[in-house]
Design brief:
The chain has 12 helices and 13 strands. By secondary structure, it is of the alpha/beta class. The protein has a domain of 227 residues: Rossmann fold. It has an 8-stranded mixed beta sheet, with helices on both faces. Helix 7 links the parallel strand 7 and strand 8.
């Protein structure tokens, strides 16, 4: 792990390592929880970003994942259920010099927080949203969440089977026109690190879904991907500009028939590598990214990696420009004068 310079009060420089981002707080997740891996990889990534700790803020809502700010030796807010994107928007707009991360879960972000998540993405606020998706409510002891599978049995709040059709987090993010959308897996640590690095480098709203195992209330939810025997055949690693191939035999791939993806094998039925779909994460239109977001097991390999990465002006950047323009035009404001101007009245 590389070390980066960090300014100190006397003008000297110090180097940061992973240890500098580890707090003295006891990490209180269930033994074996996938959250440990995400925390460890985030702590590894931070020193390489070249950002001082005092310029990094983690904002969370409510849920197992929302303990994250306690375990990162940076600034942080543990806020209220579902509202982390709103707090992060206000923080980034008032302090554009900060790097702001939102840590959330599938319940926190997609149920009570669904409205806030949509707006932080559509506004393209320059924050990094990391959604831990374990397809269950873990903190409140095993109720089904917005991403739980239809018909799933053994769930405390739906013992006869989950009656809801699940939300697809990536499809939601793409529908909200997020400028960066990616998926990774808690056990694939190298890929997780690379994905967090890409999100950190993106200017705008970055949305990362992490498939995360809850070994107490939904153990093995992603075993079809993470088990060694099936991982290669069921995982499609997306690489910009490269053909979409998967499996131990790289001849298997994805092509489009109209707007529908299909699995083909190079060398069979006249299929060549030129027929395979090439990934383009920079397409301004989100149609390809949306098609990829809908691909899922058992009909297709599950896409992981960056689905979309495009540029667009950020909400906080526009607000900052407007503030500068207002000061140039009207001068610095007077809060007391503002309170006593316009429509005011005294209630006797």
């Amino acid at each position: 792990m590389s070390e980066v310079a960090n300014g100190t009060a006397n003008g000297a420089t110090a180097t940061l390592t992973r240890k500098d981002f580890v707090t003295d707080q006891e990490v209180r997740w269930c033994p074996g929880c996938g959250d440990y891996s995400i925390l460890a990889q985030a702590q590894k990534v931070m020193p390489d970003l070249g950002v001082p700790r005092e310029k990094i803020v983690f904002v969370s809502g409510i849920g197992c994942s929302s303990r994250f700010p306690y375990y990162m030796n940076t600034y942080g807010f543990h806020t209220i259920h579902g509202r982390a994107p709103a707090i992060a928007t206000g923080l980034k707009s008032s302090r554009p010099d900060l790097m702001v991360w939102v840590i959330t879960g599938d319940g926190d972000a997609l149920s009570i927080g669904g409205n806030h998540l949509l707006h932080v993405l559509r506004r393209n606020v320059d924050v990094k949203v990391v959604l831990f998706n374990n397809r269950i409510y873990g903190l409140t002891k095993g109720q089904y969440s917005p991403t739980s599978e239809l018909g799933k049995k053994g769930v405390k709040s739906a013992p006869l089977g989950v009656p809801d059709h699940p939300l697809n987090p990536l499809s939601v993010a793409i529908g909200a026109e997020a400028t960066f959308v990616a998926r990774t897996i808690d056990t694939d640590t190298r890929h997780l690190i690379a994905t967090l690095e890409r999100a950190a480098a993106h200017k705008g709203a970055a949305f990362v879904e992490v498939y995360q195992n809850c070994n107490v209330y939904n153990d093995g939810a992603f075993a079809y991907l993470t088990e060694r025997a099936t991982h290669d055949e069921r995982t499609l690693y997306l690489e910009h500009g490269q053909p979409m191939v998967f499996g131990k035999d790289p001849k298997r791939g994805i092509r489009l028939r109209g707007l529908d993806p299909e699995i083909v094998t190079v060398g069979e039925n006249g299929v060549t590598e030129a027929d395979l779909l090439r990934h383009d994460e920079t397409k301004p239109a989100a149609s390809l990214a949306y098609i990829l977001s809908r691909m899922d097991y058992p009909n297709f390999p599950v896409p992981v990696g960056v689905l979309r990465a495009v540029e667009r002006p950020t909400y906080d950047g526009i607000v900052e420009e407007q503030q500068v323009m207002a000061v140039q035009r009207y001068g610095h404001g007077d809060l007391d004068k503002m309170f006593h101007s316009g429509d005011t009245w005294i209630v006797a």
